[in-house]
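tool_call: predict_structure(chain=1)
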Amino acid sequence: MFTDGQLRRVLHACDRYPERNSFGHDNPARVHAFVLTLRYSGLRIGDGVGLRKEHLDGDRLFLQTQKSGESVYVPLPESVVDALQEIENGNDYFFWTGRGLRKSAVADWQRSLRRVFADTKVSGNAHMFRHTFATDLLTPACCRRLE
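tool_result:
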């Protein structure tokens, strides 16, 4: 699980991420949106990478998970929705081109996250966002973190 301080450092590092890649995308915004999505949706990294624009309906996320086929419904904070809506990559996915293997795209995102964690000196991995999300769900509403 990430602490609030670690999450702030990770998000700050996302904003310092190199601007462009071979596809010419706005990388800081994409990495920032990816981290927020994993943190506030509880999705596995593969489901985050495969997140389609049609899965977002207003501030609600609806999809079936790749691994188990389970239906997921998660309301997202406005900041996450705004970050997702800022991403424009010209295809149906937020974080993938839809071409090639999803497994390869997941490996690319794992490398990106390792770079962010190294920049912040935070020891972490994508699954820790899921732990943080689950812990917040189990915390009484009066004690939950505020964004």
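agent: The chain is about 50% helix and 10% strand. Proceeding to next step.
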